[in-house]
Amino acid sequence: MPTLRVATFNINGIRSRLDILLRWLAEAAPDIVCLQELKAPDAAFPAEALRAAGYGALWHGQRSWNGVAILARGMAPLETRRGLPGDPDPAQSRYLEAAAHGVLVGCLYLPNGNPQPGPKFDYKLAWFERLIAHAQSLWDSGHPVVLAGDYNVVPTDALDIYDPRSWRKDALLQPQSRACFERLLAQGWTDALRTRFPEDKVFTFWDYFRQHWERDAGLRIDHLLLSADLAPRLRDAGVDRWVRALPGTSDHAPTWVDLRMTRAGGRRGRTRRG
Questions:
Q1: Residue 272 has pLDDT above 50, yes or no
Q2: Is the previous residue joined to 115 through a cis bond, with omega within 30 degrees of 0?
Q3: Could you report how far apart the first and last alpha carbons of the chain are, in Å?
Q4: Taking residues 117-128, what's their average pLDDT?
Q5: What does the alpha-carbon distance between residue 25 and residue 139 come to, in Å, rounded to a whole number?
Q6: What's the pTM value of the predicted model, to 2 decimals?
Q7: Other beta carbons within 10 Å of 120
Q8: Which end of the chain, N or C, is less surrounded by CB atoms within 10 Å?
Q9: Domain ranges, ordered by start, for the chain
Q10: Is the peptide bond before 117 cis (omega within 30 degrees of 0)?
Q11: pLDDT tens-digit readout, 215-242
């Protein structure tokens, strides 16, 4: 049965890390990729380089900050939404939605929210509320949906962070942030990585400072949520940690899910990739 790989990767600057992105695409060959923190205006997005690598792309850039993109292997993704409904600040490029390879993918970069308390944290929670409302409409539609991206939320102390003590005041661990994530999951979405590793510490982000990567002092803040139709199709999920070990790389690692698809929905048959 064909397998579809959907991945998310906070690239943390697509122009400076294009070579790393292209190397990962060549080695991992994901079918759909959600990118965050492009940190580039639309005109600077490397569409031609990605096309040469076999990927069609949609992007919503922003100079110096934010920016999201969706890549699809062997095809052009079909845009269905740019920005969340009711967003009072559309200049912040944080949400892009498209159809590709038989699924609908929402690519999101949720606000960090630091410092908190304060206006940035208030903006984070307000943005989260709009995401929850839109996610409910996607869930109710019955379409096969993956909500993938950098959620800037550490769901639990026990399994999603190396040690919460020095992060207690950070917006990523605040009860309000976690409560929003829990409300999102309560709609019925399946947290693919946690389902695959129910009792293991799994990280997707390692800060550049204090040798966090070398000490494996990580956090899990990049998530892929699956709709009711896709959850039973979960075959595997994981983190491409080797990308985080490359020189000059992002502080995030690509995170992915493999889904069993029908011949109509999947691209093609493939062997399992580790």
A1: no
A2: yes
A3: 17
A4: 97
A5: 29
A6: 0.95
A7: 14
A8: C
A9: 3-260
A10: yes
A11: 999 999 999 999 999 999 999 999 999 9
Q: Do 174 and 219 touch, CB atoms closer than 8 A?
A: no
Q: Which two tokens stand for residue 56?
A: 């069609």
* pLDDT of 270 strictly over 70: no
Residue linked to tokens 């949400």: 95
| Amino acid in the structure at residue 58 | L
Q: Is the pLDDT of residue 17 over 60?
A: yes
Torsion (CA) 211, 214, 220, 221 in degrees, nearest 10? 50
Note the pLDDT tens digit of each residue in 157-205.
999 999 999 999 999 999 999 999 999 999 999 999 999 999 999 999 9
Instruction: Quote the DSSP letter at residue 2.
Output: -
Q: Which two tokens stand for residue 79?
A: 């845009």
Specify whether domain 3-260 bears CATH 3.60.10.10.
yes
Cα four-point dihedral sign 129, 113, 158, 228: positive
Average pLDDT, the chain: 94
Closest by CA to 223, choosing from 160, 130, 168, is 160
Q: Is 265 exposed, middle or buried (0-12, 13-18, 19+ CB in 10 A)?
A: middle
Q: Which amino acid is at 171?
A: A
